């Protein structure tokens, strides 16, 4: 959500769709939309995943420490409805996407698996979270998925001061 205001301004009159699974973040995004009068912002409160169903969100002290799991922990997790990205796009009438940003705290590959060839995505930015915890490592698998689906990709130059930037992948359809 940090870049959302920039996207809304840069894409106006285009459409920006924010898919957010964290209920507190959905409320903040709605407030951001109202305060800034972003009429081109659609907020969808669900998770994007490989298939329709439910995931479970364990919220940490910051959004970086949130984790999506496939198993309920009634004390610590919230059930989140999940839809494949292709289905979400279909409901929005989208077939062509100029730019897709994925930042899902370790669920990047799960989101990518929910994309079918019915959706034409030209460019992507995928934030992998390998730097947080071994259980959140997706960087190598995401690179493999991108290659298998016809994308070329690059990454930022290594910067030890902003180590998280080292796990951003920028992809374009070949």
List its traits:
174 residues; alpha/beta; four-stranded mixed beta sheet
Strand tally: 10
What proportion of the residues is helical, as a percent range? 25-40%
How would you describe the shape?
globular
- Side by side, the strands of the main sheet go 3-6-4-5
Radius of gyration: 16 Å
Order of helices and strands: HEHEEEEEHEHEHEE
Q: Report the structural category.
A: alpha/beta
Runs with pLDDT <50, length 5+? none
- The number of helical elements comes to 5
Mean pLDDT: 85
Structural summary, described in words:
The protein is α/β, with parallel strands linked by helices. Helix content is 25%, strand content 33%. It contains 5 helices and 10 strands.
Task: Give the secondary structure arrangement, pairings included.
Layout: H1 4-11, E1 16-20, H2 23-36, E2 41-45, E3 47-49, E4 53-58, E5 67-69, E6 77-84, H3 85-91, E7 96-103, H4 108-112, E8 120-127, H5 139-148, E9 151-155, E10 168-173
Parallel strand pairs: 1-2, 3-6, 7-8
Antiparallel strand pairs: 4-5, 4-6, 8-10, 9-10
How would you sum up this structure in a few lines?
With 174 residues, the protein is of the alpha/beta class.
